[in-house]
Amino acid sequence: MSLSASKIAAFALALAWSIPHGAQTLTGRPDGALTAKIVFLHAGHGWTARNTTDGSWYTQRPETFEIVEDLLNHDFHDFQAQALWNAGATIVPLRPIGKQTIERVVDNDDAGVQFTGDWFNSTSPIFFGDASDVPYRFANTTTQETAVAVYQPELPEAGFYPVYAWTHAGSNRVPQLYRVVHSGGTTEVRVDHRRVGTGLVYLGTYFFHAGNEGRVEISNQSPLRGVVIADMIRFGNGLGDINRGGGPSGQPRHDEAGLYWIQKHLGQGIPDSEYRSTADDGNASVSAPTRWAEHMNNEAVGSPADRVFLSHHSNAATGTARGVIALLNGNNNLATRTPNQRRLRRDPRNRDQRRHARRR
């Protein structure tokens, strides 16, 4: 019996999501070879608006061999996210993770947030929310917990929800403790906001019952001296609601180009130039993920080996081309050439595709 590529992908995806997605332990998230490493994760293409003409939406690649790359890329992106999470990585999602179309966004000013202990209002110009909001709240760290911010959404349905945090990064931050309370117990996740932030960071995917039993707690407990930040917590991904002249896409947000996920979470005080280099959305969607990764990454803390940008993309090729395509930047300047360019080009394992290497 033969199966089409789309049926194989659908079966594999269904199998993956039949397994609890994300850590379901009572204590902590997984540790592994990628613990303390940051992965900026992206899936290529996605529904895109013709914003310079009529504002209608299109996929950047047509259906080929029963595959639409814009959608398939994200399917495998989810597998990749789970593998990275299980290895201990801190993940910055440049397209949403998972398929949850329900969303709840809880900001520090919302009724669903409760503070205990000493918290202080920030006056920072950079934060998530409306311009008139309290930017965010912060608490000084202590070795024993003395302050907690509790984010408690009202979820209309039970299901698996990816959880994200928007936290302004800074030099006086610490590896911040998030406790995710879900149907399986409580999972502790630490994110080092000296190294990454000012955009969404993934806290894992968990099963929550309907109602308001689930929550995320931000604790001021840390062995290091500094502050913790309480700004925004997101549950789920939602449906696309950005209008580029022809109305919203009507598609699940995870099927849209990463450009719109980034735009949705730009935050106050951050210029569009941090993620957008051109007015046309089709062109902007190519460079937005790398530009936003650069924005969220504090390269001054840690080493280059502590972080990586990883974008998943497939091509429904014709002919005999097989294997992985090495993407070279074409820069022959010794001062700025990436260290692995020559290795990629000469590696015999890339021989089937070396002639198809693309310059970016």
Proportion of residues in β-strands: 25-35%
Distance between the termini: 41 Å
Please tell me the overall pLDDT. 88
What is the share of helical residues? Answer: 10-25%
As a whole number of angstroms, the C-alpha radius of gyration is 21 Å
Give a short account of the largest sheet: 5 strands, antiparallel
Tally of contiguous helical segments:
5
Shape descriptor? globular
Helix/strand-derived category reads alpha+beta
Beta strand count: 21
Query: Can you list the strand order of the major beta sheet?
Result: 8-11-16-13-14
**How many independent structural domains?**
3
Helix-strand string: HEEEEEHEEEEEEEEEEEEEHHEEHE
- Unreliable segments (pLDDT under 50, ≥5 consecutive)? 1-26, 353-360
Helix-strand blueprint:
Layout: H1 5-17, E1 38-43, E2 48-49, E3 57-58, E4 63-64, E5 67-68, H2 69-86, E6 90-93, E7 103-107, E8 113-116, E9 120-121, E10 137-140, E11 148-151, E12 159-166, E13 175-182, E14 185-192, E15 200-208, E16 215-219, E17 227-230, E18 232-236, H3 258-264, H4 281-296, E19 307-312, E20 327-328, H5 341-346, E21 358-359
Parallel strand pairs: 1-6, 1-19, 20-21
Antiparallel strand pairs: 2-3, 4-5, 7-18, 8-11, 9-10, 10-17, 11-16, 12-15, 12-18, 13-14, 13-16
Structure, described:
This protein is α+β, with helices and mostly antiparallel strands. The protein has 3 domains: 31-100 and 241-316, no CATH class; 103-236, Jelly Rolls (Sandwich); 328-360, no CATH class. Helices cover 17% and strands 26% of the residues. The protein has 5 helices and 21 strands. It has a 5-stranded antiparallel sheet, with no helix packed on it. The chain has a 4-stranded antiparallel sheet with strand order 7-18-12-15, with no helix packed on it. Strands 6-1-19 form a 3-stranded parallel sheet, sandwiched between helices. Strand 20, helix 5 and strand 21 (358-359) form a beta-alpha-beta unit. Helix 1 runs parallel beside helix 2 (69-86) and helix 3 packs across helix 4 (281-296). It is globular, with a radius of gyration of 21 Å. The chain starts with a helix and ends with a strand. The relative contact order is 0.18.
